[in-house]
Amino acid sequence: MSIVEPCQVLTAGYSFHRKPFYSNQPEGIKNYLFRLQTDGRCQARINGEMTRIEAGDLLLFNPTEPYELDIHSELNPMGEQVVESGDYHIFFGGSWVDEWWHHHKRPNRIKVQLTEALLGLFRQLVMEQRRISNPYPEISSYYMRILCLEFDRMLSEHPTSTHHNYLAYQIKNYIEENASSNFKLDDVSSHIGISVSRAVHLFKETFNTSIMQYTLDIRLNMARERIIFSPMSLEQAAESSGFANYTYFHRVFRSRFGMSPKEFRGIHREQL
């Protein structure tokens, strides 16, 4: 007798459509579905209406919700009719998922950043499902739970779907992914496609802290972990965490943690 996993991935894949595609399941899809639009556009039924879906739209459906997807030709910038739509899709279920679903009210669609961290979760689930011989099927279950909880975190970080909030979270994601490099405010604003002054204002308004202060917090946390757990020298730990000047790093580290990096390492290495 087969054992039903509390969180089971049934199918996981990636599709890129260059021909029209249509699917309509008015009675529901019988399982839960995550669908992440990565390229191009399509349409899906959201809250009873066919809605334009673009890259960065993450869709979630429960087993009983009507599901309709329409991938058709559209005009590209050259004025040509083309079909282009790419997406990751995961069908899943289980008792843990049922409990997770009913824990919060969940929208069918949220706008997300296509970060390497998020795309990596989808890729890993697809790879696990492709394994012909897999003695550890529970790995997929763990990855799926992480993805569900990541959905909750993204939802909590997007309490409203305003354009301003979306831009502010783009800035936040950029900082978290690039904190170890020596970027400038110009790099952040250029990546988002807005001016430096607007980027600074939006971030402060949304998170009640400055871009540079948040960057400093991320870098100090990175350095702290490397000082405790890595064999790096203190200078290497500082540099690899985004600090180009060790004197400055020493000063801000002491201000934050109340002791020098050397003292901090000595105390915490004794506790390991």
Task: Please provide a written account of the structure.
This protein has 10 helices and 10 strands. It is α+β, with helices and mostly antiparallel strands. It has 3 domains: 8-157, Sandwich (Jelly Rolls), CATH 2.60.120.280; 163-208; 213-270, Orthogonal Bundle (Arc Repressor Mutant, subunit A). Helix 4 packs parallel to helix 7 (211-229) and helix 7 packs across helix 10. The chain is globular. The model has no long low-confidence stretch (mean pLDDT 89).
Keywords:
single chain; 272 residues; alpha+beta; Jelly Rolls; 3 domains; eight-stranded antiparallel sheet; two-stranded antiparallel sheet; globular; AraC family transcriptional regulator; HTH_AraC; DNA-binding
Topology:
Blueprint: E1 8-17, E2 21-25, E3 32-46, E4 49-54, E5 57-61, E6 67-71, E7 74-75, E8 81-82, E9 85-93, H1 95-103, E10 109-111, H2 116-130, H3 138-156, H4 163-178, H5 185-192, H6 196-207, H7 211-229, H8 234-240, H9 246-257, H10 261-271
Antiparallel strand pairs: 1-9, 2-6, 3-4, 3-5, 3-6, 3-9, 5-10, 7-8
Helix pairs in contact: 2-3, 4-5, 4-6, 4-7, 5-6, 7-8, 7-10
GO molecular function, one term: DNA-binding transcription factor activity
Organism: Paenibacillus terrae
Keywords: DNA-binding, Transcription, Transcription regulation
Condensed summary:
The chain is α+β, with helices and mostly antiparallel strands and about 270 residues long.
- Low-pLDDT regions: none
The CATH class name of the largest domain reads Mainly Beta
Second rung of CATH, namely the architecture of the largest domain: Sandwich
Query: Rg to the nearest angstrom?
Result: 22 Å
What is the helical fraction, as a range of percent?
40-55%
- Indicate the proportion of strand residues: 15-25%
Total helical segments = 10
What form results from the Cα inertia axes?
globular
